[in-house]
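Need HNH endonuclease's 3D structure for a figure. Predict it.
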Amino acid sequence: MIPLQRPPLQAQLAADLARRTEAIRAAGPSTTIGRNAWRNAREPKARLRQLLHRMAPGLVRCMYCGDNLGTDIDHFEPIARDPLRTFDWHNHLLACAYCNSNQKRDRFPCDPVTGAHLLIDPAREDPADHLLLYLESGAYQGLTPKGLATIDVFALNTRAELVRARRLAFTVVRALLREWHTLRADGDLAAAEELADSLRLLWQADVLRAVVRLTRNPPLAETVLGPTTFTALRTLAAEDPHFRP
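Structure prediction for HNH endonuclease:
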């Protein structure tokens, strides 16, 4: 998971969503009322999907696992818990069908004492405050109760394909950085930029971000990445803010 920037709503869409929320309130908020209202909101859902596509990582990847295509508008706090958030723009994230329907469903763990939710909202907080990605293994470590709950709900470590994909992505990132450095040194700037763009759109954006964050600790980064890859990353970061921690 990586932090995401949520774009503002257009005034017309914001007014439409507010009107639909008031209709749910007037009808007596319930799971059935909320789900029926959402099911019938074809036009606003299409517009929300466009905005979510803009803020999704990579090439429209799931905002939770980062691996699969984001196909579903997920309600971060499920409609079953709060029907009045059915049309709350800040409650919408883009998920793959597996994360949305097989893993999360209506799960929304909360702290038993404070009642605060225990899932990471990547549009409101930095997942790196709660999760540490080990690049060599492809596994996550939960640093906080919120990190642990997020790993559990989305099976980030027990879905073997996700762990393997993160390991492979780390191999790809290192190879692309080394090749970028070679092309740049040879003066082939167009080809180098194409490789940089490939890195920006990597299907596992959390892997690239973990690599970039390593540069905060240069000795560790050079050990994990190797001298050539580390030099390439530092050079690229000096030119492009996307690659700065």
